[in-house]
Amino acid sequence: MSKQNKFSRRKVVSAIGAIGAVGVGAGFANTAAAHGVEPTFTAHDPDVLVNDDGSVRKVNVGVSHGAISWKGLDSPAKEAMVFFCAVKDGKQVTLDSKVLSATGLRGTNSFSFDPVDLTEKPFDDAHFESDEDGKLTETDVKLKLRARVDTQAGNKVTGDTYDTMTVGVQNIEGQTKATGKANASVGSYHQKYAGMYQNKEGISQPIEGGMLNLYVTYGKQTVTYVAEYDEPEGYEYSMADADFGTNNNLTLGIDGDDDGCADFQLTWFPGSADTNEDGFAYKATTDEPKWDAWGALPDGFSASKEGNLVTFEVPRKALGEDDSYKVGAQASAGGEAPSVVVSGEEGKLWSSEKNWTSSQYFIESKVRAGYSNLYVSDNDEICVGVVHDDSDDDDHDDDTNTTTFDVVAPNGFDGDHAPDGYSNTHVELFFDFDNDGDWDTQVRRGVGNGVVDTGAGVFYQNNGGSWMSNFDGISVEETDDGFVVTVDDDLLGDSYGVGAYGTRVTAVSKKSEMLGTVTKSGSGRPWNSGNLIETSQ
User: Fold this and answer.
1) Where is this region: Disordered (predicted)?
2) DSSP state letter for 319
């Protein structure tokens, strides 16, 4: 945990507009899991075989029990892969890999890897040997596990974890430290990317175990990037301190039109004469292409820093008109301090191509939907995202504005089916159009066997009426993990009430369970008088 204030995260269902989370665990013990990630991994006891003179014959290491988990994908999983790697001279070398089965928007699978001799690949015997009789030589080997889940939509979602194995020669048993952790999670943001601190050997101010997390949130007009210096306790200095090291800086790069060339970069560089009084600046690329000079943030851009958080706000239009773009970040503080890169290629962000404007190593990212309002059940199982369409309709005959309600329940629906272990699910969205404290209309989606009143599909009823499917002033659309309801604004008053509720039935015991409730009180039922959330257009 950082020694400074952590990013304040609202509870949110992990599937909302998110790239997804893939977790892979490391260490001998089960560690505290991030939201949506349950890491478990047990290594074979490292087997170090030595001769009497201290020469090394074999260093075997493998994985006896491992598991990956995924949750919050943008479409159902198609296949998973796990890569078992060692890091040599800063480069990743794959020791072994496996293809695993993967289905659904969430799930888990287990794996193992037979022992691999590290003296065969990527090291040699001499890398571990002791030069003197009786002298203990300890050599650290950085191990890495990467989990990747391929989705049916063609996206690839990855999660990495690192651990260090210490190999001791002269009959000293090798050890694997139980300090690994998963670094992929989804919270109150649409996307999260992360990079681990790199500490060059011999530097005077290392920070072991540090990470730079990049959280991305898409609003209707603005995209927010929050860079978090996530550092362990115990250090008297931090990369987040403006006076740490020399030339301490953080840079965010964007390639909005995905043409292989960055369009602009934003920086926090408190020691630079080119930045404003708060340490921020902006520069763009020219048509040549090459970098222009640093200057003031353009209209619509903003930046701030508080504690270990650096926040950049970028106009959504700066990401271009496509639904994908590229992004990356890096931070450094001189030769005696760590450096860190958040990119698609470990340790790399800027390529020398195109006069150092190339986005070759940036992360390919998807633009996600932003919400005007966001309401989430206390147990994170149901979310209602609200989008008000206030745009002018000069080019259309119909000048009626609408409001869209995106109901997401990733553990309630698996496409057209109930999730594994459940026979049926239904989730309901409640409206109090005139905001008098009592609900007027509810819209229900049900899937599975024996769903009362609805079967598989979306229906609605008015208070005191029967279930109907001939919607008037309301349109609906089913999604993989919920449904979308669009309401003509003339049905909504200046203020109105909204809430949601869901249940599911276990397949074996036929027990009904509450999936979640979105209400004013955070508990109870939406149909209880006065318990809907008051909102406005």
Assistant:
1) 517-537
2) G
